[in-house]
Amino acid sequence: MIWDKNLYRIGSQSSPRAADLNQDGILDIVMGAGANEYQHSEYGVIAIDGKTGELLWNQEAPDQVYGAATLYDVTNDGIKDVFIGGRSPHFKALDGKTGKILWEYHYAHQTDSLLKHARFNFNNSVLIPDQNGDGLHELLTVNGGNSKANPNSEVNRFPGVLMVFDAKNGNILAADTMPDGRESYMSPLCFSKPEEKELSILFGTGGETISGNLYVAKLSDLMAKKLSNAKVIASETGHGFIAPPSLADISKDGYLDIIAISHGSTAFAIDGKTHSVRWQRKIDNTECSNSFAVGFFTADDIPDFFTFVSKGLWPNSTGSLQIMIDGNTGKVAYLDSMGCTGFSSPVVYDINDDGIDEAIISINEFDCALGFAGKSPTTMESRLIAIHFQQHTFQVIDQLPGFKNIFTTPWLGDVDDDGYLDIVHCQYFNRGDLLSFLGMRIKRIDTPIKMRKPPVWGAYMGSNGDGIFSPN
Q: What percent of the residues of the chain are helix, what percent strand, and what percent coil, each to the nearest 5?
């Protein structure tokens, strides 16, 4: 343990990102945070000194900031700035050095036929190439999801809005609503195809109890407000697409294939060239809000996919299943049942240098039969574990009684450039109410694992935060 930072009366549904914000040669940690839902907090976004664990700066927010930060230098000072979103709606650009606001989104579009719907939650953003000729990347993100709408009801559901922001000043360069008119919670992705100049974008619709679709479109269609040209590549009835897909070449043809899982736990592998379904796998009687982590978990050279799903129906989930799918065949190559429901996603590294990657995940141990329906577990333990797929074993990296981690994905990398793997992860004080924020603990663990190469999937949506698996 290098440091252990405690922050009181707050928590987080966000996941850490890393950048050197104070120019001391050591990566610092940035993440969203906040108080309980609909509450203002002075600690909506926090930056932690990677060397000492001390708070570098904090920025207020009107509600929970659950997005993971996009990091990009727009102030031209050599320090990456922070772009991050959340509820109510919240989307801000912060100076990476000071935490001061560079620009922020204000909802004032009541009379705009499209933007009037952009008044809910901002999910993760991804960088896309310059669209307005100023030489800087832009930000692609989505706004949607009315948290006050009742489950299993279409009342007070509004179309999600896919948006492109000028990263320099926050101007909205393009926006359009979902082609099917449904809500959207899925962070969009942007990617290229071989020998194509136009970029493709990937986005999804639907929710926990609302049917939805997975779409692919041209970025140029969004810029022209023509998302109606988007193509449906997967659908689910009674559930939507919430977790961002992962992009990896499993067909060995140079095209990024699309591997997605619906909230109804149907996994799809969509061919990146033809958009045909390569394989499809349903995990019965479960739900999923967690993204696939990508790695080489089997003996071949085709990427495989790991996540965990929740048994039963929210909010009465009764446990968790860990699922690894062979990327070549679509068959379940690993299945286990550890801990209870949680919504953090896995990260990946070959920690024992045997050529097979391990998955590192957070596990919550309590009486799963209590579900999430407001009942109070008398005991609770948060564990960070590494799964060895070939041996079908796991090892505990860290554990702490009385704490939980429901949402936050760990971060893997080399914080201090000493050639050894560091792990940054979060644990949250628990007093029975699993979704309440009562205090958080951020830890930096220095491991004896020699880093032979940087992690490819070392953070939420991959080490680059773009959902793309690009092995070194």
A: 5, 40, 55
- The candidate with the shortest Cα–Cα distance to 165, out of 114, 205, 130, 203, is 130
Closest CA to 2 of 23, 26, 34: 26
- The pLDDT tens digits for 404-448 are 999 999 999 999 999 999 999 999 998 777 788 999 999 999 999
- How many residues does this entry show for the chain? 472
Which whole-number Å values give the CA distances from 80 to 71, 83, 290, in the listed order?
Answer: 5, 10, 27
User: Strand 266-270 relative to strand 257-261: parallel, antiparallel, unpaired?
Assistant: antiparallel
Mean pLDDT across the stretch 445-467?
Answer: 97
Q: How far is it, in rounded angstroms, from Cα 63 to Cα 38?
A: 5
The answer on pLDDT for 384 being more than 80 is: yes
* Number of Cβ within a 10 Å radius of residue 139: 22
Q: Which residues contact 329 (CB under 8 A, 6 or more apart)?
A: 279
| Torsion sign, CA atoms 11, 14, 15, 21 | negative
Using an 8 Å Cβ cutoff, are 155 and 95 in contact? no
Other Cβ atoms closer than 10 A to 352: 15
> Rounded mean pLDDT of 198-202?
97
Q: With residue 220 as reference, give the H or E element that holds it.
A: helix 219-223
Q: How many CB atoms lie within 10 A of CB 326?
A: 20
Q: From CA 337, how far away is CA 180, in angstroms rounded? A: 36
Count of other CB atoms within 10 angstroms of residue 65: 31
Give the separation between CA 408 and CA 406, rounded to whole angstroms: 7
pLDDT in tens, 107-166: 999 999 999 999 999 999 999 999 999 999 999 999 999 988 888 888 999 999 999 999
pTM reported for the whole predicted model: 0.97
